[in-house]
Amino acid sequence: NIWNWRNEEIFNPNRISYDVQWIPVDKGWVYLHVLVDLDSKNIIALELTEDEEKESTEKFFKKSFNAMPQAMVTDLKPGYHELIYDKFHIEHQQCKFHFKNAFSRKITKEINKIKNMKIWEILNSNPDISDYELKNQIDEYLEDIKLEYDEYKQEVFKIFLTSTRNCF
Known about the structure:
Elements lengths: L2 E4 L8 E11 L2 E10 L5 E7 L4 H11 L6 E4 L5 H8 L3 E4 L1 H30 L5 H33 L5
Parallel strand pairs: 2-5, 5-6
Antiparallel strand pairs: 1-4, 2-3, 3-4
Helix pairs in contact: 3-4
């Protein structure tokens, strides 16, 4: 590690949040690991490292806690669950905000695939179509599809939020 700090006033936090921020420096990147007590909203610990590998995160956790917390929230980075739940036996919840954003991006990507296939189909059958008419046909074609995806997305969010309501 390059630098670390521990808030000595927080002894045994019950519910915490963990994140890593990338910070550009002259030689590339450094990584700021951050633990926050979700009950008091105070920072528990900070550490700058040259990487964000599992081993660095594990060492950071071991240094940061007198006793392991009951639960931890993280973003969706692969590998966190294995470390947090399997290794440290801490209840792990992925951040609802990150989940909603990632899921929305996937839906948008799927709609764009459908849109691009339809544009290709229209242009192949009518190469002289105006941009205005093409846009109108695409908008009309996508209207019901977007509504259906939006309903699906809202149902998934309801299920996700219901299944995690007791965590945080």
